[in-house]
From TrEMBL:
One of its GO terms (cellular component) is membrane. GO terms for molecular function: heme binding; iron ion binding; monooxygenase activity; oxidoreductase activity, acting on paired donors, with incorporation or reduction of molecular oxygen. It comes from the Eukaryota. InterPro entries: Cyt_P450, Cyt_P450_CS, Cyt_P450_E_grp-I, Cyt_P450_sf, Cytochrome_P450_fung. Keywords: Heme, Iron, Membrane, Metal-binding, Monooxygenase, Oxidoreductase, Transmembrane, Transmembrane helix. Belongs to the cytochrome P450 family. Pathway: Secondary metabolite biosynthesis. Pfam families: p450. Its cofactor is heme. This is Cytochrome P450. Heme binds at C340. It is found in: Membrane. It comes from Meripilus lineatus.
Amino acid sequence: MIELLGWASRSLVFLRYTREFQETRKIFQNQLSRQTSLVYQETQIRQALILVQNLLQSPDKLEAHLQRFSASVIMEIAYGHHVTSEDDPFLRIADKINELTAGVGPQGSNIVDFFPILKKLPAWFPGAWFVRYAKESYPIYCRMRRYGFDEVRKEMARGTAKPSFLSLNLEDLARGGTENEGTENEDKLERLEASAFHLYETGTETTSSAVHTLVLALLLHPQAQRKAQEEVDKVIGSGRLPDFGDRESLPFVECLMYEALRWHSPAPLGIPHQLMEDDVYRGMSIPKGSTVIANIRSMTLDEKTYREPNTFFPERFLPQPAGFGEPRPDCVFGFGRRACPGQHLAEASIWIVLATLLAVFDIRPIQDEYGNDVIPPEEFHNSLTSHPAPFKCSIRLRSDLAKRLLA
């Protein structure tokens, strides 16, 4: 289905392991390594503050505010663009991406995934909804992918472009002396265009889903929320908000983040892989060309790895005797040379939001007409990513001091 929609074209996630894959992945590794990701921390802190201010003004719009946060961080990193209004064209693109993604459905849920020959059906054929959907969606996708790329090139020509993933790579290309040299240069430009949009389209939804899951975890597990707040108060005090310099001093907050990722991964089935040659796994013969789907949710709930895996217990990652010394769920970011190159960037965005929320807000259940807490169900919706079903909660300032800090 992804191939039918044209999303696999030059997208790092879906490229075969070729020279193009290696060169494309290098683009990401150069800009998104653990060390180079540090330059984006100012953006992440600023957007986390905007998020909590928006939640203070309209706490009933939780999902929309989380979506705006993740889209704003990624678009500023990818394109150097600052969101200035709710009608920002980049935000509209983010909304459209979510709409198109939801229409695809979970991996393996479409018959064309199992019988690729069906993609050759004409759009009018009964039951060929996926052909019609792709035909309608593909030109929209192409326009979205091109928009940010064209805007950055215009700004570079005017001398007004801000440093970003795309502008820095375009500058490197220009310094290489191939800015206007034929087919090879056009190929590199297309690769940069696709890479910047890939960062935008994948980073926005997964980060938003992960933070949304964290908020639900805080709501359903108030004891973990209180313990994390106590740690934040002890380390940071009352005169400022958290920043990345506090991260190593907040081990329980770190554990809380990883436990939420383990509890409900944003991508519970990861990305499908295809075998490049025949293989044998535990006595099972798997022929070349087979599609293999990694059940990440099963891995993060594996009883051989995690004690009482269905229990939300952030301390499990702490060394004994404080915890179980269990491994962090790195599998949620993929595997090997296919692992997510933006892992460090994503973790930083999730962490700064969590730490800031804990410092200023209490997240509690709403109450019914009789004063009883209304606890939402642990329900998730799945498409290419997994995110909590809409739920209501009370988001209130912890103190007048927190209000002054935000002001």
